Amino acid sequence: MHKKNRYAVGAFNVNNMEIIQAIINAAEELESPVILQASQGGLKYAGVEYIAALGKLAGRKANVPVALHLDHGTDFEQVMQCIRHGFTSVMIDGSRFPLEENIAFTKRVVEIAHSVGVTVEAELGKIGGTEDHITVSEKDATFTDPEEARIFVEETGVDYLAIAVGTAHGVYKGEPKLDYDRIKAIREVVDIPLVLHGSSGVPSESLQKAISLGICKINIDTDIRASFAQAVKEFVKKQSR
Ligand SMILES: [Zn+2]
Questions:
Q1: H or E segment at 17?
Q2: N or C: which end of the chain has fewer CB within 10 A?
Q3: What distance in angstroms lies between residue 36's CA and the mean position of ligand 1's atoms?
Q4: What is the Å distance from ligand 1's center to 198 Cα?
């Protein structure tokens, strides 16, 4: 559906109740399904149980479909904890491993997650930038190879794939240059939804073009953190006048 109609679902990183409420309000206003996702920083800050409880409540109360997703899951144990607490979807990030190891690492999670109806996102190629103090330098960032993507998806049975095509985590210094030909080439050989990480600060036209070529999930973290911090600052300033 999403591929046929060329639309993507927004996935927003959440750390607390206020951010969740703001995202749900916006999704309801726009009558759009939405993905709430917990990053490593979010889990460290709030704990898996609080995030899960808030996310599940939001899903029950909202009048749009809501998914609760683990972002950049680091290991098997963390994925299992999230599934245990009711996440509907998980990412397992084995992008630091060579292809064969990433396949084995991801496949193990896919088998277990699928047996309880939880979908799995994986990453192939290395997305640059900094997220939660994990930094991939520009020279270590590697774009996703289409042929490797085909093999990876076929062998792991993963549900959606994060690809490295020029975006990065964190704040951009210049305007990010997306490799549209690469998105297209991957889409031609991979049939599952593709995910764009590091979408904060990417111009809307670029995101729309990426979506038209096959991106189905847009991850936003930095913009949410920045606007939350800004709102808190303004509030404190007003109070201390
Ligand atoms: Zn990411």
A1: helix 17-30
A2: C
A3: 13
A4: 6
